[in-house]
Amino acid sequence: MATLSSSPPPPPWPNAWSQRNPNNPNQNSNPTSSSDQRNPSEESETSIERKFEDQRLDAADADVVVGEDRNDFGVDDAERPESSSDSMQNPNPSDDPSENQNSPPNLLHLSFNQDHGCFAVGTDQGFRIYNCDPFREIFRRVFDQGGGIGIVEMLFRCNILAVVGGGPDPQYPSHKVMIWDDHQNRCIGELSFRSEVRAVRLRRDRIIVVLDQKIYVYNFSDLKLIHQIETIANPKGLCEVSQGAESFVLVCPGLQKGQVRVEHYASKKTKFILAHGSRIACFALTQDGKVLATASSKGTLVRIYNTSDGNLLQEVRRGADRAEIYSLAFSPTTHWLAVSSDKGTVHVFSLKVNSGSAGNDKPQSAASDVNQVVSPTSSSLSFIKGVLPKYFSSEWSVAQFRLPEGCQYIVAFGHQKNTVVILGMDGSFYRCQFDPVSGGEMTQLEFYNFQNSKETF
Fold first, then answer.
1. Superkingdom of this entry's organism (predicted)?
2. For 97, what's the count of Cα atoms within 13 Å in the CB-facing half-sphere?
3. What is the domain extent for residue 408?
């Protein structure tokens, strides 16, 4: 999942809105109106007793403040620390687009939701939620005071979001993750740390918080800490998680330069992949967690790995010059990979692997998962491999789309066939279509600028 943030150092780059709590599937869905080892010395100074007497969050686990109602996260008001009242009070957000809108807001964050049907925008005045197809603003929240939101993480099409303050006048501290329930129009929980939060990832059953050198995994239902991971310095907050109901795969930087750590929680296995010789700049994970794409700080090559055994499946070349990779995205079928960079071009590559993630949640064998041939793009050059430099036998992109340089873009595949959606930190929204046979330049289908919009569609 692609994410963009403007606050230095930046976090990573990676539909209709419904009022639905992830832990209450029977609730009506109505559209809204507008390291492995705990170290008790590091992340927090206080401990909080949980609802269950045999469960305790110690100092390494961070402070957890739960909502006021049992329906929020299953904890009574009497069990909530009294010190939480200030941070949990209603910040008085407004959905009136005219408030604080004398000038266009500065964008602080962009991210797609898990199925790429929506995207979230964090601004210096609040946050907004947009639908991708058709493009329209679903709602916005403008805060009376402060208002800067540096991270907004959606949970599919649900009313629950994770937000972190950002910008010069943040709405919340940058070391706290606030769990926002838009149905109640307030925060129902928070996770507090002693260092800045770099990224947040959500699953229906987990909350993952990324700090500079640690990652915390919490149970969504009760905010119980279930795992913590140490990483190399991770200022971009690189972390991706699978979304399949039958398995939970987490990918993050390892403890060495160029190393990726893969956690398979269902099988309780950890895999380390030395993906590149230089530091990891970006990666993407398929929905089922079986295939991983990585790019290094050089930005010339993108490598595709099997997360189960760490084998290299394919290598594609973005270009010859160094570039900063902003985002990587798999298509739902894993037939295609999209890449955006600071060179102002979005590339689409044909992949030889098919993880079987499209419309099939059942486990498959490794052979059927990753060895299906999909039209290799370099077969015509295979005879010269080993004779000419590797550059000449590289696999290049099938389709490209040129964008204005000087802006950060993230990309995802659209729900329409052979389309990509591109979001820019300048407020630009592009929908483009590529020809899977002929390739070449993509066709622009739509363009909007959501930064300057003052109305809800």
1. Eukaryota
2. 17
3. 275-457
